[in-house]
Amino acid sequence: MTTTPRRPLTTTDLAPLTRAALGPSRRLAGVTRLRGGSKKGVYRLALDDGTTAIAYVWSPDEDLWDAGPVDHRDPFAHATGLDLFTTCHDRLATVGVRTPRLLYADPDRTHLPADAAVVEDVRGHPGGGDLETLLERDPETGTRVLDRLGDLLGVLHATTGPRLGKVGLVDKGGVSYGSSCERIITDRALHDLDDLVVRQPRAAALHGELAALVRHLAAEVRPRTGPLPLVHGELGPDHVLVTPDGEPALIDIEGLLYFDAEWEHVFLRQRFGTLYGALAAPDLDPNRLRLYRLAMHLSLVTGPLRLLDVGAFPDPAFMRGIAEHSLEQVLSLLMSPRHAS
Length: 341
Fold this sequence. Notes:
By secondary structure, this protein is α+β, with helices and mostly antiparallel strands. The chain has a domain at 129-339: Aminoglycoside phosphotransferase (APH), C-terminal lobe (Aminoglycoside 3'-phosphotransferase, Chain: A, domain 2, Alpha-Beta Complex), CATH 3.90.1200. It has helices spanning 11-22, 82-95, 131-137, 139-158, 167-170, 181-196, 201-205, 207-219, 261-272, 286-310, 316-335; strands spanning 28-33, 41-47, 52-58, 102-106, 115-120, 129-130, 160-161, 165-166, 228-231, 240-242, 248-250, 257-258. A hairpin with a 7-residue loop joins strand 1 and strand 2. The radius of gyration is 20 Å and the shape is globular.
């Protein structure tokens, strides 16, 4: 399947939003669409006084996933939209977790035919950038920021919610589907596996064994009571910006959840690799880690393959690489499930 490539917004398109957000005395001199942003458009706004800001635009034209109607009562439903963003931004601000400051929101679509917001440009400051780039360019400085990220995670995970689910739903009194984190992850893993067998012949040949492994790992997880921590859910080094004073700032926050910390940590371990030790936490449940790691890898096979089916992703080889690597991880866990944690 192929789709028409999306047309990036222009200076003319974004000038009214910029003027409303930053005032009439500053003129929008240029616009750059930033890489990433598969669920929303992310644009750097260059002003005539040499300063910059970032515009987020949520519209079907900017969303590569073609997700259709979304029910946020599903904790893992497509996480996108201004309403989710502002609720999550406010929650992080309340507990002192750094994220780019919200400068302006336009829920009424006054300036674009889509929800939009303007936020602080952390990367636009001297020395600003993301942690992934910093770790490659300056490992010593990057390691110091990584240690600070570990502290920030402690604050994040010490923040709890009244019940599981998306922050954008729960903080407004909503109730999610699902009786427990482990049940949600198990059902999601089995659904991903069923989806995978029609897309990946190697997985299809092992469907029965993989389904049995998911159920076996789920059976080893004991019920848990008590409040659930606030987790980002997809926290890789590319989702951590670095402020000029060397502090980490989280982005892509719309998917914030009240959920098991183990779900956060299997993703952190995958994305940070040998550097994960700076972010590790004590008292994690090894049985949950085993189940969640397998589920995460199944998701990282099916998700990229679904996106490739839509056909709009600008770097399909990159997505195929993620799917292939994740499939290898799934198969390795099938061979040695006791080492999944």
